[in-house]
Design a protein that fits this description.
alpha/beta, 8-stranded parallel sheet, binds zinc ion, TIM Barrel, 16 helices, about 350 residues
């Protein structure tokens, strides 16, 4: 087995809707009576711009039509990641579009939970869920979602959902507008994170930290433009779940992986981890993410092992579980034959 696949990993930034196999997209479209721009699954996930990516992301979201579909995509997302070293994931789902079309949050969470539990039994990977607010649907839809989620959890209906996040379009949206939703979620016992500084400046990260009380930052690239914010986030050990290949392929922030600040973020002392974001849509897996970043940024095997172990610290597992998982990771790493030289970029 390739060392980068064998390396045990935590993943904290992966959208289940971005992990749907092309062949499943075709089958879901057929099942739900929807037409696709192409019948060739390999042609689906090709983009020439962020907008063409979002068109496909929304198309795939719209094909997940009932509880069985959620179960299927939840199951496949874990089964596909397991051979590439995934051991524990906290996975996003973004139900705004589905709720607006009349699906129930209970059915969505039930389906995902069933699928994930099935995959956990088969692979030994563990997975918790993070419910994301879609910023594009506005603050009141966000608040309504959180109120539903918190009451579902109170009635024991959403045990697998441990956190609240927020994603989708960042420009022109003030994070402060979502403070009431994050407040209800926090008081309801959910952990809090948000996409920030992916497509906007460092001030958006600071605002999310201050106004939404998040304990983790999704992407957070813009932090490198603000030295005092780097100091603050480093001191507080606030994790950043970074997705370098996605930032090149989807957000078009950098022309080449070689230009990505991931290594500089870590050298600045930040707790920055590696993640795939939307693996099926960008032909990625965690092994490939680690391998390509190591090669492009010249990171040694030891550095990559540190990234893997930092994933445990950055997770929302409790301290006892973190110690156990870290011990298991260290034992697994000791068994891996390191790659002789970093592959060339
Ligand atoms: Zn994302």
């Amino acid at each position: 087995m390739d060392a980068y696949d064998a390396l045990p990993k935590v993943e904290l930034h992966c959208h289940v809707e971005g992990a749907v196999r092309p062949s499943t997209v075709v089958e879901l479209a057929r099942k739900n009576g929807r037409s696709l721009p192409t019948d060739d699954p390999t042609e689906l996930y090709r983009y020439d711009s962020l907008n063409s990516f979002l068109d496909i992301f929304w198309l795939v979201q719209s094909l997940i039509a009932d509880r069985d579909d959620w179960e299927r995509v939840g199951y496949e997302s874990i089964v596909d990641a397991a051979p590439h070293g995934l051991r524990y994931r906290e996975m996003f789902f973004t139900p705004a579009r589905h709720l607006a079309e009349g699906q129930s949050l209970g059915a969505i969470v039930d389906g995902l939970t069933l699928g994930v539990e099935h995959a956990e039994r088969e692979t030994g990977v563990r997975c918790a869920l993070i419910c994301d607010i879609d910023r594009a649907f506005g603050p009141s839809a966000g608040l309504e979602l959180v109120e539903q989620l918190v009451s579902l959890r109170r009635s024991g209906g959403a045990e697998a959902v441990i956190g609240l996040g927020m994603d989708s379009t960042e420009r022109g949206v003030d994070p402060r507008d979502f403070a009431p939703a994050f407040d209800v979620a926090g008081r309801g016992g959910l952990k809090l994170t948000s996409h920030a500084g992916e497509d906007t400046g460092a001030d958006n990260i600071a605002t999310a930290l201050d106004a939404l009380s998040i304990s983790r930052i999704d992407h957070g690239l813009a932090i490198m433009d603000d030295f005092s914010l780097v100091e603050r986030v480093r001191e507080a050990r606030i994790p950043l779940d970074v997705c370098p290949n996605s930032n090149v392929l989807i957000a078009n922030k950098y022309e080449r992986l070689e230009d990505h600040p991931f290594r500089r973020m870590r050298q600045a002392g930040l707790l920055a981890t590696l993640n795939t974001d939307d693996p099926a849509m960008t032909d990625l897996d965690l092994g490939k993410e680690y391998r390509s970043v190591a090669a492009a940024l010249g990171m040694s095997w030891d550095e990559m092992c540190e990234v893997s172990l930092d994933g445990v610290e950055a997770s929302w597992l409790d301290e006892g579980e973190k110690r156990r998982v870290r011990g298991a990771f260290e034992a697994a790493i000791a068994e891996i034959e390191p790659p002789e030289v970093a592959a060339s970029a």
